[in-house]
Amino acid sequence: MNPFLAIGLTVAALVVLVLGLWALAVRGNPSGEDFYGLAGKHYAHRGLHNAERSVPENSLKAFRLALRYGYGAELDVHLSRDKRLVVMHDENLARTTGADMNIAAVSSDTLDGLRLENSGEKVPYLEEVLPLFSGQQPLVIEIKPHGKNYARLTYRVCKLLDEYPDLQFCMESFDPRVLIWLRRNRPEIIRGQLSMNFIKDRSGLKWPMAFAMTNLLLNFLTQPDFVAYKEEDRKNLGLWMCKTLWRVQEFSWTVHSQERADELKAKNSILIFENFAAQ
After folding, report:
1. Model's pTM, two decimal places?
2. Do 76 and 87 touch, CB atoms closer than 8 A?
3. Rounded Cα gap, residues 181 and 174, in angstroms
4. Which CATH number characterizes residue 149's domain?
């Protein structure tokens, strides 16, 4: 055999093998058109917030406003030192409250004395938000572990959710350990892998993990029901394979214009939006 032909065939076989393994790695659970009743809804990112109008992100006021306009909402949950489920995006409280403290290091006594973004709004707990949405609009609940508390945090969120049988919701996390825990312990809960281009924005990850997370290569462990991908980074081979080969539902975050929303809806993506009234 011609040596150049042999080399070409070997390279082609290796490419096919790599692509095949990649396709297996990014697998997830296929979903129906209505995606468990969560499709056809738009989700206000951290509630329908607007700092200029004294409606802070992840505040009860922002969540009530989302409900008033018929939206679902996305929110974030941390665990405080005294094991309260705190609705807040950042691990540190400085940006949103001016108090330079980590949520995991403070108790509810301290949290109760803080106010969001120079408003009268307090830092909410998850048990204050869930009754607002129960029987009304769905929630996308992001689990935000600190250190090794992923199991304890996820367990406590699930236990609280059990008290609201009329609430439509799904759970998501950047941390694959959360999804693995849900898969093993609460497989009936709709779970999603959050991701983005971590190669461009490393976020403290070492390069191998950044590459794996960017390309959804841990899906074979987490087996997500959906993938929530940063909308500006969504041109990604792993995401394309996950959606095309495995029919996994996509959420897009965070959408900032109706024009972009229309483009993503045409691609059957569910929207997590902010700073405009999504239609």
Report:
1. 0.94
2. yes
3. 13
4. 3.20.20.190
